[in-house]
Design goal:
Blueprint (H helix, E strand, L loop, with lengths): L3 E8 L3 E4 H9 L6 H12 L5 E4 L16 E2 L4 E2 L4 H25 L11 E6 L8 H9 L6 E6 L6 H14 L4 E9 L10 H9 L2 E9 L7 E11 L7 E6 L2 E6 L3 H17 L14 E4 L4 H11 L3 H14 L6 H15 L6 E9 L3 E10 L5
Parallel strand pairs: 6-7, 6-8, 13-14
Antiparallel strand pairs: 1-9, 1-10, 2-3, 4-5, 8-9, 10-15, 11-12, 14-15
Helix pairs in contact: 1-2, 2-6, 3-4, 7-8, 9-10
């Protein structure tokens, strides 16, 4: 019995960051060097992002907080809360995103109820607390107290793939399993003013959001994505080029400018172990119709598209998500896969089209997945 991802549902905070306004705020901070100001303008303007969502309501000129923690709208100054203060915002805010996206996912599968869920897998790299989101989902959704719970923490942008791979393994071990997978990230709580190129890049790219999926092998006639194969590859270089560290004033991103070059050099080799698992694809990936690429940034998408010789239409889901939402770390590739599913369901596409998906993270780690689109249409 195939293991299917029956639905992907998403949630974002209501506060919207407009890229041009955010650029102007970051560019007006005191202490910036001439190079820092130039990097801010370049990073924000070249990101191909229009809007992002943030859990920090202070990050808009329309909101004037009485005791601002992140941004003083009166003075225009970005503030420097401690890691503890930033994490307290995570604890207060992220549960709503976990619960909202998970509730939507359950509602999208009317044949399944809270009593059917056997496993919960939660993912985040932007905050910590315990009892954590896995516990809160069991309580908030009315799941069985015996629901098996797992949390994948601090893995970075690729973490949705280990979560889905684990869900697939649970369903293969017990075909009656129903696994709820939820990724939720509040990247924006860690932004700060800086002349450091990595910090500037993070401020230009990262955003907040959540995505939830239902994974099961139970028989069902409706649409979904069949989870065929997963693979992990560590590139031979790049350990120092992408990292995620804990500092005194929030988590600190390392995203070296050489990351797109590393991906460019090693992306084909990273795909080969995945393609070797499927006789119907083999080493020639040209027949794969859809590509769910994690939009880690415009330069990464450009490199992947050029190296794999993909068409503009194949990169459109990733570019749409980047433009509308920015980089939401682990949740982002789930937004891209949802875009692919929704687009093809709206067109009444035939079932059987293949989807290759990939994400990149600290290490440098390349996670890949091969899936098959089942739209419920035949022929």
């Amino acid at each position: 019995m195939p293991v299917m991802m029956r639905t992907i549902q998403t949630a974002v905070p209501p506060t919207i960051l407009y890229q041009d306004k955010a650029r102007d705020v970051f560019g007006a901070q005191p202490g910036l060097t001439r190079l820092g100001q130039r990097l801010i303008n370049t990073s924000f303007d070249s990101a191909q992002i229009s809007t992002r969502h943030t859990a920090v309501t202070e990050f808009t000129t329309e909101t004037v907080a009485e005791n601002p923690l992140f941004f003083n709208a009166d003075s225009g100054l970005l503030l420097s809360p401690s890691t503890k203060e930033r994490n307290e915002v995570f604890v207060a805010t992220v549960p709503g995103l976990y619960i909202e996206s998970a509730q939507k996912a359950l509602e999208a599968c009317p044949d399944l109820g809270p009593e059917d869920v056997t496993h919960v897998i939660t993912v985040s790299c932007t905050g910590f607390y315990n009892p954590g989101p896995d516990y809160q989902l069991v309580r908030a959704l009315g799941l069985s107290p015996s629901t098996q719970r797992y949390h994948l923490g601090f893995m970075g942008c690729y973490a949705a793939f280990p979560a889905l791979r684990a869900a697939k393994s649970f369903c293969e071990a017990d075909p009656d399993s129903v696994v709820l997978v939820v990724c939720a990230e509040l990247c924006s709580i860690h932004v700060r003013s800086s002349n450091d190129p990595d910090t500037i890049m993070g401020s230009a790219l990262f955003a907040d959001g959540a995505a939830a999926a239902i994974v099961t092998a139970r028989p069902h006639a409706g649409p979904g994505l069949r989870l065929d194969h997963f693979e992990t590859v560590l590139t031979p270089v790049g350990e120092e080029a992408m990292a995620w560290n804990i500092g005194d004033e929030g988590f600190e991103m390392v995203l070296g400018t050489y990351v797109p070059h590393i991906i460019d050099d090693h992306i084909i080799g990273a795909l080969q172990p995945l393609l070797a698992l499927d006789d119907s694809v083999g080493p020639d990936y040209a027949d794969i119709e859809h590509w769910g690429i994690h939009p880690g940034g415009r330069a990464i998408l450009d490199r992947v598209q050029k190296r794999l010789e993909l068409g503009d239409e194949q990169l459109m889901p990733a570019r749409r998500v980047l433009n509308d939402y920015g980089n939401m770390s682990s949740a982002t590739v789930m937004f891209v896969l949802k875009d692919i599913m929704d687009e093809n369901l709206s067109k009444d596409s035939a079932s059987g089209q293949r989807v290759c998906s990939m994400a990149f993270g600290p290490g440098l780690t390349v996670e890949t997945a091969l899936m098959t689109l089942d739209t419920g249409q035949r022929g």
